[in-house]
Amino acid sequence: MLKVYSWKGNLQLSPRVIKKIGIENIIVISTPSKLASISYLRVDSGDKTLDHLFSEKGYMMVVVGYRLSRFLRFKPITFILFIVSPETLKELC
Fold this sequence. Notes:
By secondary structure, this protein is an alpha+beta fold. The protein has one domain. The protein has four helices and three strands; from the N terminus they run αβααββα. It has a three-stranded mixed sheet. A hairpin with a 2-residue loop joins strand 2 and strand 3. The longest helix has 10 residues, at about 50-55.
């Protein structure tokens, strides 16, 4: 099992590394105050296949202290990006 410790900010792992270690071997650790401010988890790895695997998992355990944990659901990241010409934009507005 891989244990990653980050003392400053978020430690980002590449999709290649996450696939290699497997999402079942990832442990999410949070402070109780941070966990109180969120109600779901989001994953944006830059790899649609990997993001889908997390969404299929449905939830993940988040460790918040000694013998304390909470399960949080994944919320998919969805957005639509429209690219239009300036002329079309003027017509739409």
